[in-house]
Known about the structure:
By secondary structure, this protein is of the alpha+beta class. Helix content is about 15%, strand content about 35%. Helix 8 (about 450-460) runs parallel beside helix 9 and helix 9 (about 485-500) runs parallel beside helix 10 (about 525-540).
Amino acid sequence: MPLLLILLLVVPSAVVAAPRKPAPVKLVNPGFDDELKGWDNVDATAMAGAFSPDKEVQRNGKSALHVKPQSPDQWPWVSQKVGGLEPGATYVLSVWHQGATRVDAGKADESNTCAALKLEFLDEAGKSLGARVARQPLKMAMWQFLAAGGQAPPTTSQAVISLRIMGDQEAWFDDVELTRTEEAPRLALTPPRLALNPNEAGTIHLQVTAAADLPENEQATVEVLGPNGKAVKGVTGQLARQDTRTFAGDLAVPALTAGTHTVRVKVGKETASGSLFVSLAERRPTGLNERGILLGGDGQPFFPIGMYHAALGDYKGLAEQGFNMVQGMGSHTARLQRLSVQEAQGRKLALQIPLYTGGMVGANLKSSQEKMAYFRKSTTVLDWKIADQPDQHPETADEVPVVYAALKEKEPQHPLALTVADPESYQYWGHFCDGLQVVAMPLPDQPLTVVADRVKAARQALAPWQHLSVLLPAGYRAGVVVQPTADQARMMVYLAVINGARGVWWYALRSPGFRLADTELWKSFKRLNEETAALGAAVVGGTETALQSDNARMQSAAWRMEDKVQIAVANPDSGPQTATLKLEGACEKAEIVKGIGQAEVKDGAVQVMLRPGQAVLIAVSKAK
Length: 624
């Protein structure tokens, strides 16, 4: 099926829209006939030499955009902000692209480089509301069509459109179009997707909003349909009138079995539908213990210290720096997967393998099942990742629950993971994963305590057996390189572990325009990973124990290990802090084993004094 047709068919089930003639959205210089006017990033220092208008190679008009990467990891991109978008309407972004004009002008392997585009919806303040992404391998001397589209979220007012080359081959773009393919629906339901535990009665909150004022006597009726399409009995409650266009309320839903259900709301002649997913029962894999600790290939508790975006040639250096896990290759090619597993095994690195190759989830199901069956007995592959930030990809978001259930059916051992950025969705996505990796990227404009807040929120949203890890910024390019100092990186690790993380991951070893190994921070990672491993040993080898503190500005947690207690303490405050920490029973001795600070026992409690931005790991002996 052609890509554009697929995109036009993937309209979220939460709305029913009236057909309307497609309407183009005005763009600045969409055919690149006026040099590079209207396109951002073309003159960025990091992109120097990558872009030029080409009057000799074009599909239409006077010229096309020629993109020539200046290094293999530059991955050049241009963007344009577009205003005046209609909330709830459906948009499709498209472009034509081609590879080198002669086969001998580039590399013979055309699959090394992809053309990509992104349509990112924004609210009035510029906050991202989600993106639609598509990419396609380049072909030599052949113009290809590429498109991505979806429904604008309810608070959309603008968007950013982007074109990118992912790889090191030159390419051309021409004839960019942004089209409103459908107007906003006459009736919209939020949230578009809901989740409940299996075999438990629950409550769901719904809101429906009409595009126009409704008659005063209009009412909203709701029904829940089972996987067989029949109405579920025992649903109680109603949606009450909120204003001239909105109904909202809570519904009590009886216990349901696992599967995909539908919520259907009718107001007058209009109908809106959403998905209600009921998660699986008894789903803890054997690769996790009851405390959410990942088990290694030897069956022993394992604390991941992982890295994103590493090539096979990087595994040796990562192992030497103290990393013990890597996000592996997402290729469909069995030979490449085997090579990555063999290389990791030789370097004593564990692997998390992504299953969302090409940004696909449901379309990859067969391939995913084959990979999992092939590596089922591997002691190197510890878990699989279904999707990365599914909230940002509504076109595949509803596939995640279905794929999770299908994979669980044949994979009782290795955990299935998701990476999620939005704290408000932790609880929802927790229904459809065994491990949740939360994105905590406070830099450049948020306090480091964002890490603590996000990990704590995720821990509260998950069952005790579910694995929780955190993704922290080692560095990436966002116009300029965003990277923590060594002290900031260390503080983020402590804040994550103190608040419940069972693993620490870093983004990234490399990303477009960035190489971690070329930075000063890289020199600190071996020492940082040694300290992270010491914290991890306390987490996986100890038992969490109650700890009282008289200073809320300091963050702390404790784990009992045989005859001692390990206490992690962090001071993210801007000034020096002192805290008195009390364990059950009197303490006899306190010794700092990692970090710089002061700790001593007074009246059976541990008194800790830390400078701003400092953290320590303390070994405490209890009085006999």
